[in-house]
Design brief:
Length: about 575
């Protein structure tokens, strides 16, 4: 996954795309690049690493047309040559791209036969040469359209040509959104890229292209026919996309959870009732998500089963494609995704629709690809989540499952009332654990391995806790049902191995504590997350007492804080962990 932003307007285009690139770094940050056009022609600056200031070579350009890119490498290693923009042989056309061109080899061979010389190993470079080839017989936008028609795979791409005064974008299976601010136009992977200038947007759909000359025109790539598109006003506020006084977005987003949860609870009752009817009446319900969104789905499965007695299956999104063909009209899919752009979720969901399945999505990004393919979407309302590690959206996703479950048993109001008390309890959980987790982080930072265990509805909190620890601190971490420990992992426990035991005083307490005993007997250093202390714990992370079904919402908070402070203690780049990207738009 990568981030792209292009600009056409009366302000300095390099300034505009630079600020956009900084806001898109959550999508990838292996390398960066900017291309702009001024009176002297096309200028390019690119390098490996994160962009840090307006590049010297572009600082004096008087430019109103620019494209830019922040990369998360897929095809070709991380190098200056492979960084975007990629340029045509004659140096007139520059292209940035997010996605994967699957027929790259075939296109490259064909273009080389026609005399094109390639300078990189990056699949995107074929697009620049293809546009150049078509420019021999067509004007610039039509050459881009002809090139797009030849591409297989996924793309959101932007192109400029020093001989044309147009910014051209095209999209298939990677996100692209148009932003409008009077005479200023932006084409970007995501709204935060231009939110400081405008919240007026037009989402671009698969198979569409945008030509921005004096004003933007959306067209179908297949026919060139113009498409009328309604404008959306995004409710996100700029301060939601800024760190404020916090050292990291991740910490801000952890602290924001009480506030954010109140927004998640502001749901349209009729829409929830519609979803509840769909879940109640579907013979089979498959919940699909990746990473954190799958962990939230696992909690959701327990909550729905516990409150409604309905059993739902949860699929790891990247494996779901292998089951899709067996599904039909009797299946309801609940697709869970913060970004709504994760390819592992999106592609099988689209296939499932073709097989007649209905799709309900739980998404944060309104207008995202998943939102648009779904029959009904429930929005998390958390505002943008910038930290690559998901925190506040997990809490919101889990909350949405409570709302669905209570609505399924016709107790929407009663459920809402109970959930309204959670934000305050999360606040309390944060203040109970902030200093304590900072202290325990000093122990954690010296360890290489750690294990998170829990049972029942908290089992998924253990897997989510381990994921946070891995991606933020780079410490090896595994999360598992406590009962599984004795089936193999116990062999890895030695003197001082940290075991994070999520064991609130619920129906699973006695059995989880029996597993804690087993680990302790082998030398484990036990960090207990519970509403009650125990002499088994070396450290106690206290959570408030609450109705057992809601423990996952509280127990996850100390896990987030522990991962965060361990990462800080280890000097990790918390908001942008190595090798990761916020939304993964490739398979
Ligand atoms: C979460 O901390 C991870 N960065 C990752 O697992 C993420 O949850 C996953 O890629 C799914 O993203 P989505 O919710 O945007 O679909």
């Amino acid at each position: 996954m990568c981030g792209i932003i292009g600009y056409s307007g009366d302000k300095n285009a390099v300034d505009r795309v630079y600020s956009g690139l900084k806001r898109l770094e959550y999508r990838g940050y292996d390398s960066w690049g900017i291309a702009c056009i001024d009176e002297d022609g096309l200028h390019i600056a690119k390098d490996v690493g994160k962009i840090d200031g307006i590049p010297d070579e572009l600082s004096n350009t008087e430019t109103h047309l620019a494209i830019s890119h922040t990369r998360w490498a897929t095809h070709g290693g991380v190098s200056k040559e492979n960084a975007h923009p990629h340029v045509s042989c004659d140096g007139s056309i520059a292209v940035v791209h997010n996605g994967i061109i699957e027929n790259y080899d075939e296109l490259k061979t064909d273009l080389e036969k026609k005399g094109h010389k390639f300078k990189s190993d990056c699949d995107t470079e074929v697009i620049a040469h293809l546009i150049e080839e078509h420019s021999k017989s067509k004007g610039f936008p039509e050459a881009v359209r002809a090139a797009a028609k030849q591409l297989k795979g996924s793309y959101a791409m932007l192109a400029i040509n020093k001989n044309a005064n147009e910014l051209v974008g095209a999209k298939k299976e990677s996100p692209l959104v148009l932003g409008l601010n009077g005479g200023e136009y932006f084409l970007a992977s995501d709204v935060p890229a231009f939110l400081e200038y405008t919240n007026k947007t037009v989402p671009i759909d698969d198979g569409e292209m945008v030509v921005i000359g004096s004003k933007p025109v959306v067209k179908k790539i297949s026919t060139g026919e113009e498409v009328g598109k309604p404008m959306d006003t995004i409710k996100w506020k700029l301060n939601q996309a800024e760190k404020g006084d916090y050292t990291h977005f991740t910490l801000k987003e952890i602290h924001e959870q009480p506030l954010v949860l109140k927004e998640t609870l502001r749901q349209n009752k009729e829409k929830l009732e519609q979803v509840a009817r769909m879940v109640n009446s579907a013979p089979r319900v498959c919940i699909v998500g990746a990473g954190t969104s799958r962990h939230a789905s696992l909690v959701g499965r327990y909550v729905i089963a516990e409150l409604t007695k309905k059993y739902c299956e949860v699929y790891m999104a990247s494996e779901f494609q292998y089951f899709v063909e067996k599904l039909g009209k009797d299946t309801l899919i609940i697709a869970v995704s913060q970004s709504g752009e994760t390819a592992d979720v999106l592609l099988p969901v689209k296939q499932a629709k073709e097989h007649g399945c209905k799709v309900v999505s739980i998404v944060n990004v309104v207008g995202s690809s998943l939102d648009r393919v779904s029959d009904v979407s429930l929005y998390l309302n958390t505002g943008p989540e910038i930290g690559v590690a998901a925190t506040k959206t997990f809490t919101s996703q889990v909350t949405m499952f409570y709302l669905i479950a209570y609505t399924m048993i016709y107790q929407f109001e009663a459920g809402l009332k109970k959930l309204m008390s959670i934000p305050e309890m999360i606040e309390e959980t944060i203040s109970l654990n902030e200093e304590k987790t900072k202290k325990i982080a000093e122990y954690m930072k010296k360890r290489d391995d750690t294990y998170f265990i829990a049972r029942g509805e908290n089992f998924a909190v253990a897997t989510e806790g381990a994921l946070k620890m891995k991606e933020l601190s780079y410490i090896h971490a595994e999360g598992m049902p406590a009962g599984e420990l004795k089936h193999g992992t116990l062999a890895l426990i030695e003197e001082g191995t940290p075991i994070i035991a999520i064991c609130p005083k619920d129906h699973t307490y006695e059995e989880t504590m029996a597993n804690v005993h087993e680990a302790k007997a082998r030398g484990a250093y036990v960090i207990g997350i519970s509403d009650e202390n125990s002499n088994m714990f070396d450290e106690w992370l206290k959570i408030p007492k609450i109705d057992y079904i809601f423990y996952p919402l509280l127990a996850n908070i100390p896990c987030q804080l522990l991962a965060y402070y361990t990462a800080v203690a280890k000097g990790r780049p918390v908001d942008t962990p190595r090798n990761l990207a916020k939304s993964v738009t490739v398979k």
